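Bit of a strange request maybe. I'm writing a small parser for structure token strings and I need a real example to test against, not something I typed by hand. Could someone generate the tokens for this chain?
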Amino acid sequence: MDPRLEIIPHRVENVSQVIAVAGGKGGIGKSTVSATLALILAQSGYRVGLLDLDFCGPSDHVILGIKDIAPIEDKGLIPPEIHGIRFMSIVYFAKDQPSPLRGVDISNALIELFTITRWEVLDYLIIDMPPGMGDATLDVVRFIPKIRFLILTTPSKVAVETVRKLVFMLKELKIPILGIIENMKSAESPLVSSLVHEMEVPYLGAIAFDSTLERAIGDSKTLLRTNFTKDLKKIVTTHLVSNK
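Reply from user aminoacidic:
Good idea to test on real output. This should exercise your parser:
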């Protein structure tokens, strides 16, 4: 047995809530929601960690404008804190180079990252999940106790169908699902409402398509003022947190 697996539960034992943001498909705004969710929680006074698990295309650091900082080595790695968020990503190790991992290499990278990262005391750890429903998703479910999934979709037929499969898999594994957020909504669509009814998963709300969002990427203060963040904050305060 890999001795690192015994360490991982201790790394998150002082984390009150672990939320994995997933959607099964790329391009649906998962990283933007993850990073902004962490920012909203931190601005609300919570102790927050953000883990970017997209090894092939990490982007949370770009969204939040994080650069020129690195973890501190001390019996593991202590994530640097910026905008009130303790942030860890493969980007600290791969820099701007791609990380074309597959199969057992993905599992080893996940295990290593979980093992060496010292989160200490957190109210929330937000995990930005990679696209797909393969090894990374199964490993996170296996390694991280008390994890819950926040599912993201768009009104696209392709996205909804992918989410249906993801929800089915999580239910089969008996993993708690917080609910579904509909992102980039521009008009009423029966697809998402049909999905939540069919899969019996809570509908947490919608984030309207925001044409100004792209210009806010990389500037946390501007990001917090967008309609995108306002919509997400309503969902957060209504469904994900109690008043602090």
